Amino acid sequence: MAKIDLGEGVKPPFMGTIQHLCIYEMHGRYYIRLKSSLTGKRVKKDPAFRRTMENAGLLATASKMASGVYRQLPQEQKIHAFYRQLTGKALLLLRAGMHHEVIIAELLKMCQPATAAKPIRKPVVRCNQLPALWRYGNKALSSKHRKKHVEHQYVSKQSGNRFIYTRRIDDT
Fold first, then answer.
1. In a 10 Å sphere around its CB, with 0-12 CB exposed, 13-18 middle and 19+ buried, how is residue 65 labelled?
2. In whole angstroms, what is the distance from residue 57 CA to residue 107 CA?
């Protein structure tokens, strides 16, 4: 593949294929290459491309299954990227050897809205940390005084309740 340098704003005399040359534009630059020897008939019939055609057949089947499921979606859920995800999932399941009905059921599961579960919040108890708004009289404690306080945590074995208290280190 060779780049054609014609200068700023100058186009090549033609675009496309003529005899054995192919000129095309990619990313704003013009390129020239030799015409490919492959034809559609050769790819479809030649035993060297047997696996290519098998994969193309699987992709065609996966695409048809995904389009059937995608067609059932309401208009606000239809996003082309989601159709591609459905096709990819169907292709993976086809390669795994799953039956068509099972694959369609899996694709329909992907279309179901996820149920938003409420996160379970547990009280967070941190040892050896003072509350954020620790006050001593009218003045906030300086860091020098804060270091003299220690927070302890006890858990009652009978009821499972947590008791937290703070005391000064110099207290006994």
1. buried
2. 19
User: Strands, E, within the chain: which ranges?
Assistant: 2-4, 16-18, 21-26, 29-34, 135-136, 139-140, 149-155, 162-168
Backbone φ and ψ of 56, nearest 5°? -65, -40
| Helix axis angle, 50-71 to 80-95, nearest 10° | 130
Q: Which amino acid is at 92?
A: L
Give the H/E segment covering residue 58: helix 50-71
pLDDT one digit per residue (tens) for the chain, 172 residues: 666 666 667 788 888 888 888 888 888 888 888 888 888 999 999 999 999 999 999 999 999 999 999 999 988 888 889 999 999 999 999 999 999 999 999 999 988 875 555 666 666 655 555 555 554 444 454 555 554 444 444 444 444 555 444 454 554 4
Helix axes 100-111, 50-71, angle to 10 degrees: 50
How many C-beta atoms surround the C-beta of residue 153 within 10 A?
12
Residue with tokens 């008791």: 163
* Distance, CA of 81 to CA of 155 (rounded, Å): 52
